[in-house]
Amino acid sequence: MLAKGLIVSAVLAVLLAACGSGGSGSGSAISTSHMDAPGKTGAVYKANCVSCHGSDLQGRMGAQTNLQQVGARMTEPEIVEQIKKGGSSMPPFEDRLTDEQIAGLAAWLAGKKKE
After folding, report:
1. Which of 13, 87, 104, 111 has the most CB atoms within 10 Å of its CB?
2. Does residue 46 lie in a domain region?
């Protein structure tokens, strides 16, 4: 279904609805690629998140989908809750991902902070 695809895209867009870094290009050298994710977390991100959040966490559906510095805006437990329950335009993933997959994503994303 097309609607399901749009929901999945919106899910990760909302994951960090508070993003708002504006993308003004501050030239920070922080690693933002999903390829720096540990173990299987990168594969989970690529399969479930990249369509909305982008391959470099830059966001593909507006500033709220940018995850490059999500750890500066949200704590790890808040990220877990966002992934599980969704919110705004992001659908919930608690029925699509295991608790282990969600915990891995949240731990990795919580480390994404301004340097």
Report:
1. 13
2. yes
How far apart, in whole angstroms, are the C-alpha atoms of residue 32 and residue 35?
8
Structure tokens at 68: 């490059």
Q: Which two tokens stand for residue 30?
A: 């922080």
User: 11-27: per-residue pLDDT in tens?
Assistant: 333 343 333 333 333 33
**Residue 102 token pair:** 């969600």
Q: Is the separation of the CB atoms in 108 and 66 below 8 Å?
A: no
Query: Which residues are CB-neighbours of 53 under 8 A, at least 6 positions away?
Result: 12, 13, 15, 16, 45, 59, 60, 65, 66, 67
Measure the N-to-C terminal CA separation of the chain; round to a whole number of Å: 40
Q: How many domains does the chain have?
A: 1
Most distant CA atoms of the chain, gap in Å: 40
Which residue's structure tokens are 């991902």?
Answer: 97
